[in-house]
Amino acid sequence: MTLQQTGSPHQFPTGSDAFPHRHLLGIAGLQPWEILFLLEEAKQWVDLNKKSSKHADRLDGLTVINAFFENSTRTLLSFEIAGKRMGADVVNMHAAQSSIKKGETLIDTAVTLNAMKADAIVIRHGSSGAVQLIADKVDCPVLNAGDGSHEHPTQALLDALTIQRRKGDISGLTVTICGDVMHSRVARSNIYCLTTLGAKVRVCGPPSLLPAALDRFNVEIFTNFDEALAGSDVVMMLRLQNERMNGDFIPSPREYHYLYGLTRERLALAKDDALVMHPGPMNRGVEIDSDVADDLNHSAITEQVEMGVAVRMACLDILTRKSRGVEGWS
Ligand code: NCD
User: Fold this and answer.
1) Ligand 1 atom, smallest distance to 241 CA
2) How far is the CA of 307 from the centre of ligand 1 (A)?
């Protein structure tokens, strides 16, 4: 089924045909209408989140476990708030306090989490593929909150929702993703998401931080940031993921900023109304200057955080519809 066959982007297949997946492990392989369905569903939660009383009872009585084996501030908080706003009992498991430190295998941890009868498990892990491994061992839906440098699907969805709200249709937009693409799960998930939705994606960074496999993706590759910026509708900056680097990938942060830092002068090379995005945490003065990050005429960085909660609420809702016996989701 193509997007055209489903009619307008707002007409989706009904029931579980709209999103026929047990887990959300990545964006790769999702159909355009499945992504658009998740974004459409998120919009009701954007509205709820603006109210003074933010409670919905959709996940009443359900248990959501956030199992984070890697540090996180905004993603963990965002999933926790999302689950709580939907009425679920949310439990956070931090790796530093878990039996992983005592040598338990990932599969034993998965079996333990499963025995506690979670209704959804959200996992962040430092190894690519670890989330899939756990998903194969548990009975409930698993949401990937970032696995190594592989995927971070809810980040790409919240980015897409932010772009949609600011720019309308994503199809046809030119989006430049710049920085440490090699180690970035955010870049990978965004490339899948944005190209699936019909955006022209430019990927830019020093040759040492661009993976060789990039030419298999439907993207234009740049090593000169000024050239990549010309005519861009959206500029998405990435942090240098020092924690995933073995050895030195750049001469120095200063040199990096000189060549790849988003300054006000550089931003002027993009379209006049270009949107600036960053998944956070930002290294101000390295990949992005403060006056650009804080310029509300361009920067959507805080809106990204806001959209994150709504997108995660939608994902938790949709993935638990089957177990909640929602009509059409058997
Ligand atoms: C990103 C991540 O953890 O992959 N952050 C996030 O989820 N908001 C990007 C990063 O750490 O640089």
Assistant:
1) 12
2) 15
Q: Is 186 in the pocket of ligand 1 (CB under 6 A)?
A: yes
Length of the chain: 330
The Cα–Cα gap between 103 and 227 comes to 49
Q: What is the pLDDT of residue 157?
A: 99
Check residue 51 and report its DSSP letter. Answer: S
Instruction: Identify the three-state secondary structure at position 247.
Output: coil
Element spanning 116, H or E: none
Q: Which parts of the chain have pLDDT scores under 50?
A: 1-7
Predicted local distance difference test score (pLDDT) of residue 1: 42
Q: Do residues 131 and 147 lie in contact, with contact meaning Cβ atoms separated by under 8 Å? A: yes
| Predicted local distance difference test score (pLDDT) of residue 104 | 73
At 4 the pLDDT is: 45
CA distance 224 to 259: 8
What predicted TM-score, i.e. pTM, was given to this entire model? 0.95
Q: Which of 69, 151, 186, 190 to mutate to test the pocket of ligand 1 (most atoms within 8 A of CB)?
A: 186
Helix (H) or strand (E) holding 201: strand 200-204
| The token pair that represents 82 in the structure block | 């999302």
Tokens coding 194: 């944005």
Angle among Cα 49, 50, 54 to the nearest 5 degrees reads: 45
Ligand 1: centre distance to CA 241 (Å): 9
